[in-house]
Amino acid sequence: MKKISVLLLMVIIMMVFSLTCLAEEWSNYPLQKGEPPVFTSEQLAKMSQEDFLKIAEEIGPETLIGAQGEGKGFKLAFSQRGLAGSEWWENLVRMAKEEAEWLGAEITIIDADRREEKQVTDLLSLLSQKPDALIINPQHPSAVLKALEKYHAANIPIFVVNSDLDPRGKPVCFVSGDSFDMGYKMGWELATECLKRGWNGEIKALEIAGFPGDLVSKYRRLGIVAGFNEYMFQKEGKCHLNIISQQFGNWLPEPSMKITQDVLSAHPDIQVIFAECDGIAQGVVAALEGAGKLGQIIGGSIDGRKQILKRVIDGHWVVDVMQDPRHQGKWVVYFAIQYLKGNTVPHTFYIPTPPATKDVAKKYYHPDSMY
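The structure assignment produced for this chain is given below.
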């Protein structure tokens, strides 16, 4: 009887332990909509970038912000650089719409279809509707400047989301991820994995960037190299990173898969692939699977898409630096409304971007997540 009781107790302990592990794996990060936090004018005036960062992490990506209806009567115009083929941009726009609806503001969104000239035309069209504020995700950092001058002339404040705008555009607020810092984190983690595998000589790599002329691509690329080199310098006192090819995948899986296939054919001894976003990473992973080299060639990316987080957990991908688009969409709308109400908003707000290696990815991954 005593033996049975002991066995039963052990089974119960194991069940509790298993449930605890599952709770830690699936429940650490709030993925469902919760009660929106509300801030007074006095609170907003005192809040720092770090305060907003902490709140963003606490409430998660789906919970909205502010008091329901507090933006009623305001009209927002949103010029989005592209949508088709990008799950990331689709979620950014979805949360911008939901936040505007929650606050009671009217929002008009036009997709520039990844074309600079169309975005300029879109901006002029939106201006004719006399919005109270403009939100723009620029396709090119300086191609839109002439059009934005007309907004300044009309005293319409400009808010930038995701992609960097030339400083001459004079935005009130920029909401994004810190591109250099995200690249740095990715480079650091991949260098760490290289040394774990005993790769301390020449390391051959492929770097697939986003879009030519894009400051986001440039800053991520600079960060990747800086982070990789710095880790190697600290641990080895040297670095022999040989980026044998740097190309642009236009933030999409299909061209990135083709790039990877071509580079693998020409350089079968490649060891590392830097992917500047998870859309690119999906194409890279498909190419590596087709070549039978998934896990042999290591890779990292940026965005925190659930498909790539699962690859990290399964050991197929080293790191996915979090950059949830839902944070960007809702926060830029919230800040625009608060500014129009006369409240203080940050000039720059960088959303949470922790590097999700295998253990960390378990916190953020959920199969039912909207992203």
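Interim note for the steering committee: Residues 1-29 form one domain. The first helix runs from residue 2 to 27.
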